[in-house]
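From the pipeline queue, job 12 of 40. The input is one protein chain; the requested action is below.

Action: predict structure.
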Amino acid sequence: MDSVKKGVFFVIVAAVIFGSTPILARITYDEGANGVTMVFLRSAMVLPFLLIIMKIRKIPMTASPAEMRDLFLTGLTFAVTIIMMYSSYSYIPVGEAMTLHFIYPPLVSLGCVLFYKEKLTKAVSVALILSFAGVCTFSENMSFGNMKSGDTIGFLLALASGIAFAFYIIYVDKPSLRQVPTLKVTFSVCVMAAICSGIYGGCGFGGGLSFGLSLKGWVYAWIVALTASLVAIALLQLGIKYTGATTAAILSTVEPITSVLCGALFLGESLSFLKIIGCACIIASVIIVATAGKQGPAEMPA
């Protein structure tokens, strides 16, 4: 198998892992966990492994004041993103939540236009329209006049997580962070996610922290932490190395498709024709952005 084929294989496997782990996370909710607990466990349980790997690779823990500021803000943005994302699973199907979250690539392009004065091309404009149309297809059964509606809360949480992640990607592209080792950034965002979710859940928000998981729940929690935070990230990095960022970004669109299909197959979530159209619109927008020569969206570091 040549290097390009290896890269394609690595990226697809990484995307499948990223797309399927939310299903396992959702299952843990029936085993005693909730969204904020899973964010805490996913972030905290992987920290010892990251420390060991960083020690082996001799990556220093020190950082300049500017790096510390940027790592803090990056970690905080990521923490807010993942807390909202995992909380949305309690209200709406995982497939819908993941697809709504995946509007972030077009938003990254829009952010670059607003903050970096990049030109908004026709291709990006079409992508933005498609992503908006795709999001609208998921509002068919949601009552925006009643904000206490579970569907509405889940919709807004998932959508907001995509918006927050777009800001995260734009910020992590700052020159001061480009030279920081990926594992160091990953460690920082995991620390921030653990701290923020710990405080958020400790104050009773989001259902509070709940550690009374069944054995099955703990097993799934470990699987989510290790696969999403270690295996998938490593494979994605290798895939980008072998295929290039643009090709990797296109292949990564397997992620939301995986979430929708896994949600339908394993959780019995509905997969209406309108939802299929919505998924297609958002995925098409991602592909257009990736193939238009724009910089592909950066991967979720944890």
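Job complete. The two ends are 29 Å apart (CA to CA).
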